[in-house]
Amino acid sequence: MNFKDLQFSIGKLTTGAYSHLAKKNPLQKQDTKALSSWIFEERNALYIMRMNGHQHNEANQAFNQWLKDELNENATNNKDLEDIGDKLLRLLTKQNEIEEAYAGINSFFFIAPKKKLYSL
Predict the structure, then answer these.
(1) What is the rounded distance in angstroms from the CA atom of residue 45 to the CA atom of residue 34?
(2) Is 1 contained in some domain?
(3) Domain for residue 26, yes or no?
(4) Domains identified in the chain, total number
(5) Which listed residue, of 53, 60, 73, 74, carries a Cα 20 to 30 Å from 36's Cα?
(6) Is residue 66 part of a domain?
(7) pLDDT value of position 89
(8) Dist CA 37 CA 25 (whole Å)
(9) Would you give the distance in Å from CA 109 to the centre of its chain?
(10) Sequential pLDDT tens for the chain (120 residues)
């Protein structure tokens, strides 16, 4: 198990603990409990989307490096590999851009205000 998997597992465990605490909090009113749980779950979903986008970006970079290495090692008759690899890399990159844009649009709705603009 590498560090990223361990970090993800620990993050998932703490998220589950916080979610359970939010659901069972006796100090919170019943009518706001469902709304708070929903917002909490949506923030976690947004975090997972961002994390997946980052991991897909790293995978695309590794694939690009592998493709360059293969083309350098076997310099003869690599037009097919170069063509297919380039098109696949462009497709994966575009998919990653769309995922990151989707996560960016959704993050707009879950930004917590830093300070009050006006005080009454």
Answers:
(1) 16
(2) no
(3) no
(4) 1
(5) 53
(6) yes
(7) 94
(8) 11
(9) 16
(10) 565 667 777 777 777 777 777 667 777 777 777 787 788 888 888 888 888 888 999 999 999 999 999 888 887 778 888 899 999 999 999 999 888 888 776 665 555 444 444 443
Rounded-to-5 percentages of helix, strand, coil across the chain: 80, 0, 20
Angle CA 69–62–66, to nearest 5: 20
Count of CB atoms within 10 A of residue 103's CB?
19
User: What span, in angstroms and rounded, lies between the C-alpha atoms of 72 and 85?
Assistant: 14
* Alpha carbon 59 to chain centroid, angstroms: 13
Containing structural domain, residue 43: 34-109
Please choose, from the candidates 44, 46, 59, the residue with its C-alpha nearest in 3D space to the C-alpha of residue 11.
44
Q: Which residue has tokens 């409990």?
A: 33
pLDDT tens readout for residues 2-15 = 656 677 777 777 77
Q: Are the CB atoms for 110 and 46 separated by under 8 Å?
A: yes
From the list 57, 39, 60, the residue with the least C-alpha distance to 100 is 57
